[in-house]
């Protein structure tokens, strides 16, 4: 977590200190857009995860760097923020800070239902709306396939009522890909969230082709393998040929590899550090690697 002094130094370096907090009218960067197949709506290809990073409670000092991250995320052209009741206070932090920054209308709210039972699911989703301070959730996902059939029945009704705009399912483990595939084939889904990275590519075998065939958007979690990818390249220079696809850091190297797959709609790296957020958003700018370059990237790692 950034100290107050580090935060101000980072803001000053980015030229933001004199005009913080940001408002919804702040000039934004033009990010790469991807289409949600079920609707034709476009969203920026780089989103923001909040697992662990936004679970800071109500302490104003602890919230300062998170507020900076969320404000800069919007300024950089980001919209999709992904959360869950599993992530402690993250939903509340998003709702409070979005209100303080006046960026509610700029965000695409994605969260999850993570409980068993119809009534319990309804209560939890209503609580998420209250915490995030929104009457409509853009994307509600069944978290880790917990009581999927029960919650999907509710979500189809809520979608018809306009309480949610899109419906999805998630998991973070490759071992559950068979279960994800079964639900993808059985149900009408707008989104599937799953793990995919330069070293975890099992989704390419069945799930990504299936998503394209059925018109399902793909959200990618754990793009950095919980930081393990940076340990692989620590102290190593970025290859000169990364400039061929406008890549300026190892973080962008890993994200651009993911975004270069045509089935990927949005990648959601989580961070509480402003400098990392700015670097992540850079992956949504400029060229992406072609198939030959992706193969070269994978061989390097």
Keywords:
alpha/beta, 8-stranded parallel sheet, TIM Barrel, 301 residues, disordered N terminus, globular, 40% helix, two-stranded antiparallel sheet
The radius of gyration computed from the alpha-carbon positions, rounded to a whole number of angstroms, is 19 Å
Contiguous runs where pLDDT drops below 50 for at least 5 residues? 1-27
Describe the sheet with the most strands: 8 strands, parallel
Q: Give me the count of strands.
A: 10
User: What's the architecture of the domain at 41-226 and 263-285, going by CATH?
Assistant: Alpha-Beta Barrel
**Which CATH top level class of the domain at 41-226 and 263-285 fits?**
Alpha Beta
Measured by DSSP, the beta-strand proportion falls in: 5-15%
Mean pLDDT: 92
Cα end-to-end separation: 28 Å
Indicate the structural class. alpha/beta
Number of helices: 11
Give the fraction of residues assigned to helices.
Answer: 25-40%
| Topology-level CATH name of the domain at 41-226 and 263-285 | TIM Barrel
Enumerate the strands of the largest sheet in spatial order, edge to edge or round the barrel.
Answer: 3-4-5-6-7-8-9-10
**Globular, elongated, flat, extended or rod-shaped: what is the shape?**
globular
The H/E string reads HEEEHEHEHEHEHEHEHHEHH
CATH evolutionary superfamily of the domain at 41-226 and 263-285: NADP-dependent oxidoreductase domain
């Amino acid at each position: 977590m950034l100290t107050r002094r580090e935060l101000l130094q980072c803001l000053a370096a980015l030229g933001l200190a004199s005009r913080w907090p940001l408002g919804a009218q702040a000039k934004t960067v033009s990010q790469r857009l991807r289409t949600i197949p079920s609707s034709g709506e476009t969203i920026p290809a780089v989103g923001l995860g909040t697992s662990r990073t936004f679970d800071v409670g109500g302490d104003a000092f602890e919230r300062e760097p998170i507020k900076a991250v969320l404000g800069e995320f919007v300024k950089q052209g980001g919209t999709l923020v992904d959360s869950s009741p599993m992530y402690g206070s993250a939903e509340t932090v998003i709702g409070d800070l979005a209100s303080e920054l006046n960026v509610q209308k700029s965000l695409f709210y994605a969260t999850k239902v993570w409980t068993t039972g119809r009534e319990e699911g309804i209560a939890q989703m209503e609580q998420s709306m209250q915490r995030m301070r929104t009457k409509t959730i853009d994307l509600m996902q069944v978290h880790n396939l917990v009581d999927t059939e029960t919650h999907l029945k509710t979500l189809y009704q809520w979608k018809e009522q306009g309480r949610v705009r899109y419906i999805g399912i998630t998991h973070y483990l490759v071992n559950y890909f068979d279960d994800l595939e079964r639900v993808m084939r059985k149900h009408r889904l707008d989104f599937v969230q799953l793990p995919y990275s330069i070293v975890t590519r099992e989704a390419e075998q069945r799930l990504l082709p299936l998503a394209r065939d059925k018109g399902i958007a793909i959200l990618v979690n754990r793009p950095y393998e919980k930081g393990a990818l940076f340990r692989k390249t620590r102290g190593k220079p970025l290859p000169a040929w990364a400039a061929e696809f406008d890549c300026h850091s190892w973080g962008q190297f890993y994200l651009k590899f993911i975004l270069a797959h045509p089935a990927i709609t949005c990648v959601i790296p989580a961070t509480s550090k402003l400098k990392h957020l700015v670097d992540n958003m850079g992956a949504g700018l400029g060229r992406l690697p072609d198939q030959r370059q992706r193969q070269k990237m994978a061989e390097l790692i």
